[in-house]
Amino acid sequence: MSAVPATPQEPAKTRDLLAALGRILALDSLLSEREQTAPFDCDGLAAFRQAPLAVTLPQTEEQVRAILQLCSKSGVPVVARGAGTGLSGGAMPCADGIVLSLAKLNRILEIDPVACIARVQPGVRNLGVSEAAAPYGLYYAPDPSSQIACTIGGNVAENSGGVHCLKYGLTVHNVLGLRGYTIDGEPLAFGGAALDTAGLDLLALTIGSEGLLVVVTEVTLKLVPKPKLAQVVMASFDDVVKAGDAVAAIIAAGIIPAGLEMMDRKATNAVEPFVKAGYDLTAEAILLAESDGTPGEVADEITQLEQVVRAAGSTQCVVSRSEAERLRFWSGRKNAFPAAGRVSPDYYCMDGTIPRKHLGRVLRAIEDMEKKYSLRCMNVFHAGDGNLHPLILFDANQPGEWQRADQFGAEILELCVELGGTITGEHGVGIEKINSMCVQFSPQERDAFFAVKHAFDPGGLLNPGKAIPALARCAEYGRMHVHRGQLPFADLPRF
Amino acid sequence: MEAALAQMRDRIVAAHRAKSPLRLRGAGTKDFYGESVAGEPLDTRCHSGIIDYEPTELVITVRCGTPLSVIEATLAERGQFLPFEPPAFGADPTIGGVIAAGLSGPRRAFAGAARDFVLGASLLDANGELLHFGGQVMKNVAGFDVSRLLCGSLGILGLITQVSLKVLPKPRAEATLRFEQDAGKAFDSFNRLRSRPLPISATCWHDGIVHIRLSGSPSALRAARESLGGAMLDNDAAQTWWQALRNQTHAFFSDAAAPGQRLWRLSVPPAAPLDVSAVDLFEWSGALRWMVSDLPADTVRARVEKIGGSATLWRGHDDATMFHPLAPATLALHQRLKRQFDPHGIFNRGRLVRGL
Asked: Count of A–B CB contacts within 8 Å?
């Protein structure tokens, strides 16, 4: 799938823009040759590609500000970008715009072990924060699977989660403050090391806003003490619905595990040859439930967890006996995506969330959809918070397979909305789920989102076309929607 | 649409058309909170009741007029609670008021704020449209996070008609330790404790006494008690003490509310230096400090701003504003958001920011 070429603006206008950017940035921080900008055509969702006019890599806040002022004045769209690990095409460039990579703003400005905060630039890697805090016995809790590569700035844009967010929260619960700029280059600061600030909660509003409201240049993070011990219970079930019921039973028993994850048989069988985690390959589903805290606390909770999952009909139940074994049990879950890449040329990861009680119904519906679209799907699941990650396996080189995978995904998301859930739990809307937004929100609700957008960015220059669909787009989607399965012009790229 | 909701919508539509301001009000327990507000009262208590509660999903969905006491009793039946411990101020607020004010109690520094537990909210906007944001699931990043924006908005963007909140199981056990300590020593010990993996769920210093509450498994509490020392309060006394702090029925707050006095609520970075002589009570591990002071408002605010905090004139504001002034760029965003959501300024005009 090759990228759509950049929109040829009036050559003089582009030349002027590049010249002006060249006055702001060092020579190696402005990329405009096609071979230089190509790596920025997409993020982790490679099916959606677009060539930008140029890529900028500022090294200072002042340069960020100058770039924004220039783009605002010249009406040039700006797409901010971190490590590009996002899975919804949120960092895909605009044809007539520039990419603002924050990767070079990668300094940890401060670790304050007394206040338990870290002040970092947006290009710092998620795991880098925990590594820097480790000498003080502290860490940054949200741990998206991509944490080795993804940046804090990207986490803020997407309100990223992770496998421990049932107990420790999402990005929004762990970010104390932000500094950044509006599209006009006006400096802003929301929140800070203090817990309350006056006025509206613009900090919460900005987190998860997918680069549509402000460009963030500094983030204050909450650090938490590292638990003394963590252990995980791995339980097998001969039925996915029973495994789902076990999750409800754990919560009903008053336990909030540090992590609570489920994999179906297709997923365990795909990852086991790859990671050799020791999964029970005959089980229809396995559940991983982690307890952390003091040794006494963990011992109590593990005993309780074992009792609850046994009572819920677990066919086999193993407890990790060492840190190495705990990490091995998790390795399959954490490597589910690359494993999918090994068993299939391409995969498409979905991210719907449902009230957990509907798990059985959704998994059965997905099985039916596998037949309907003639594609396989394996399921990994943040069981504690109802966030599903069906991985639809396909081969982009086979004509029509990507289109079928795309429709398969959209149908899963519609079911999630129908059952009271949402089209995206943690990956964001980006460009990928923009049509599904029409299913979840009414025109009036989308107008309210545009009202927010307008208050921050009246010219609509920050990451335009992402996250919120325009009215016309939903009208078009509604027409296609009626004829699902017999999509008109099915071979045309729809995005 | 339900009758009570339709009635409120009609009032809003009429007010919008006439450009005449409304003053949204639940039980009125926080009438003191906010800048002065003009407008015809719109009582939200007609729209009351629990819509959905699924203990195993950890979510409760309630209408705005539902009394907090009803919600807490319902949760308690299933061993659950609202971890942000919203203050009730000695009466029974509605949940709409709790969320619109966005205030949190003693557990805030350890378990999170009101906004951290908001999963979804419905809003009647100035056009009388009923809008739904967020939802009833833990993880949801579809669209801007308007439901959390509404938490603490004091009703200036519209009428919150319904909220979905994350709830948690009550801690298995709790224990409260009491120490005699001067302010400086207490502050230092809060600083030391912050980075240790202890099951602390509230801390407070006042008048030479430190209270530390522990919440968690019995074995974790045992270990923490051994490591911290101090005298243990009996359960009822502890319960009463924290409730009094949470609801501000503690003598310190009633004394400070006497006419002619100014009570300041200072939200500061937890480890920011403590002016021992000035602060009367501090909680949230040092991040929330209370002070009775006659100093001019500008002086207090300049000092607090210097250490990265903000100062609310909690009681006794007359000429001074209650809330810390906003930075110009932030104020401009507030003005634009208000104009977008409420072009004629009919909702709680001026309550969060004077003139807005």
From this structure: 272
User: Do the chains contact at B288 and A195, CB–CB below 8 Å?
Assistant: yes
Could you give the 3-state DSSP secondary structure of residue B180? strand
The alpha carbon dihedral of A265, A283, A268, A292 has a sign of positive
Distances in whole angstroms, Cα of residue A488 to Cα of each of A397, B254, B261, B350: 21, 70, 72, 53
CA distance A417 to A425: 12
Tell me how crowded residue B218 is: count the other CB atoms within 10 A of its CB: 13
Could you report how far apart the first and last alpha carbons of chain B are, in Å? 30
Question: pTM (2 decimals)?
Answer: 0.95
CA B61, A190, A100: angle at the middle one, nearest 5?
A: 105
Q: Which is nearest to A185 in space by CA: A283, A90, A78?
A: A78
| Rounded distance between C-alpha atoms, residue A481 and residue A484, angstroms | 5
| Substitution target from A138, A294, A298, A415 for chain B, most B beta carbons within 10 A | A294
> CA torsion angle for A72, A77, A80, A83 (degrees, to 10)?
-150
The identity of residue A339, as a single letter, is A
CA dist B356 → A70, B9, B215, B316, B325 (Å): 32, 22, 41, 22, 13
Amino acid at A156: V
Q: Which residues pair with B176 in a beta bridge?
A: B213
Q: In whole angstroms, what is the distance from residue B206 CA to residue B52 CA?
A: 40
**Dist. CA B346–CA B344, nearest whole Å:** 6
**Pairs from A339-345 (Cβ < 8 Å, separation ≥ 24):** A339/A267, A339/A270, A339/A271, A339/A274, A339/A275, A340/A270, A340/A378, A340/A391, A340/A393, A342/A270, A342/A274, A343/A270, A343/A393, A344/A376, A344/A393, A344/A394, A344/A395, A345/A394, A345/A395, A345/A396, A345/A397
What is the DSSP annotation of A253-315? Answer: TT---SEEEEEEHHHHHHHHHHH-----TT-SEEEEEEEEESHHHHHHHHHHHHHHHHHTT-S
Pairwise CB contact (< 8 Å): A444 & B129: yes
Question: CA of B192: which chain A residue's CA is closest?
Answer: A114
CA distance B104 to B311: 16
- Tell me if chain B has a CB within 8 Å of the CB of A441: yes
Beta strand B40-43 with B288-292 is: unpaired
Do B197 and A188 count as a contact with CB atoms less than 8 A apart? Answer: no
pLDDT in tens, chain B (356 residues): 899 999 999 999 999 999 999 999 999 999 999 999 989 999 999 999 999 999 999 999 999 999 999 999 999 999 999 999 999 998 999 999 999 999 999 999 999 999 999 999 999 999 999 999 999 999 999 999 999 999 999 999 999 999 999 999 999 999 999 999 999 999 999 999 999 999 999 999 999 999 999 999 999 999 999 999 999 999 999 999 999 999 999 999 999 988 889 999 999 999 999 887 789 999 999 999 999 999 999 999 999 999 999 999 999 987 899 999 999 999 999 999 999 999 999 999 999 999 99
> Residue B61 phi/psi, 5° resolution?
-120, 125
The answer to whether B178 touches B230, Cβ cutoff 8 Å, is: yes
Largest CA distance in chain A: 73
d(CA A361, CA B125): 35
> What CA–CA distance (Å, rounded) separates B151 from B114?
7
Q: What angle do CA A266, A272, A275 make, to 5 degrees?
A: 140
